[in-house]
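Question: does this match?
>
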Amino acid sequence: MKFNTLLYIAEDSVVNISLNRPESYNAFTGEMRSELLRALEIVAEDKQCRVVVLTGEGKAFCSGQDLKDIEGENVDFNAFLMNGYNPIIKAMRSLAKPIICKLNGVAAGAGCSLALACDFVVASERASLIEVFVGIGLVLDSGSSYFLPRLVGSNKAFELATMGNKVTAVQAVEWGMINRAVPAENLDEEVSKVVSYYAQAPTLAVGMMKEMLNRSMDSTLDEVLDYEAHFQSIAGASIDYNEGVQAFVEKRKPVFKGL
């Protein structure tokens, strides 16, 4: 798949998407927003894909919005977000496949939101996350005001949002913002382990659990119990469930097809 601002590589059941504007620390332009949304739409339609890896080329993951791209414009921020960043975050959270963030460097502003919107984050110990919005007199956007308090609690979220403190990868693990932080030289290996697991996991069940967890944030216990019963009936009719039971009986490792 050919893009101008992304690298898109599909190999077997894994799709790797790399933000590819290293000269600007992978800052977002209008073109890159459009291409990332299109890439996520393609992934959603790809029946062979069972896991997505999202990363950045060069030293950074994503430094947020490229201010040079909107310099001199009278920006309608409502439309800017509703038509630009919000569809990307919604597409990520609704994707019925796990998105693994390979956090290779700084994730700032909308780039931080992008990382937090992923399902599993493995970071280089050199990486960091920064909510830089307050530094230019703006508020959190692209989902950060949703993800932050759910991950770190309201008080810490307020501090990070209003003071714009840099969070190291190691701190981010301690605070529950991301899953793992490893030495930079081990990043590829650690990401490969996680990707290998999800590429062989029961993808249908994983995708439904992602949706269930999304819904649980704003649901009552009764609603959650109903969701569990509904999705379990779907999982119980799947090929992977039959394989899982058969493998258990035969005392072997299941070979899931994602169906």
User: Anything to note?
Assistant: The mean pLDDT is 95. The domain at 6-199 is CATH 3.90.226.10 (2-enoyl-CoA Hydratase; Chain A, domain 1). The beta strands are 6-11, 14-19, 51-56, 99-103, 106-108, 120-124, 128-130, 166-168, 180-182.
